Amino acid sequence: MNLLDGKKVSEKVLENVKARVESLNKQPFLNVILVGDDPASKLYVNNKRKTAEKIGIRSNVIELPAETDENTLLDLINKLNNDDKVTGIMVQLPLPVHINKNNIVKAINPKKDVDGFHPENVGKLVLGIEPYFYPATPQGIIMLLDEYGIQIEGKHAVVIGRSNIVGKPMAQMLLNRNATVTVCHSYTSDLDEIIKTADIIVSAVGKKIVRCKMVKKNSVIVDVGIFRDSNGKLTGDVDFDIVSPYCDFISPVPGGVGPMTIASLMYNASKVYE
Ligand code: GUN
Fold this sequence. Notes:
three-stranded parallel sheet, binds guanine, Rossmann fold
């Protein structure tokens, strides 16, 4: 068993992004909008801001109260779209329920959509046309697999979870790299039987779901889940102790996908479109 060391690889990615930022004529300027005061979202946003600053990306966090209405948020996005200094815009999810997330994502200029969630960027990804930005988590996972020289082409990749943020774009990116992709979700019957046939498993559920010790020999396991167990310890979707002796590569939680997501987002934030 080998570890997919996201912490180590993310440091290398960030070094490269820093060098790239230094070579640009225009300083990237990331604007993160946070609506409400969800503590987890605050933590993520703060982490993004601090990392951006370390590598020379200017950043601005705009905090709005939970009761902000949709039009106020749309006006703000419009203002940022029209501000030439602003090169990246992201709205931290989840949003309060009274705001229609799709309307918000659609309002962001696709050339500033560092999350890669705008329908134009998603559509391009599906069509196999280069989008302005790929979603950060799946892009970070591909970077991690590539860094370890893991072959994707021709492999059976099983993606567990079908969210717009991770599962769906992950499946599409693996398909674009010529994997045979199976997407599993809460209605999938006999998940364990499918897991047994996977060369690559990406689990993004937020529950202990990969417990089966029957993972294929030489399989590669990427654990996107991160939550606290009943003892308050940070853990992932995969039962690491049971599964790790059977696979070839596995990403730890923490220290796997998390740092890669941030590095991948910073890579996106360093892209400046005129
Ligand atoms: N919430 C959880 N993950 C993400 C992400 O990648 N982008 C945004 N905007 N919000 C999130």
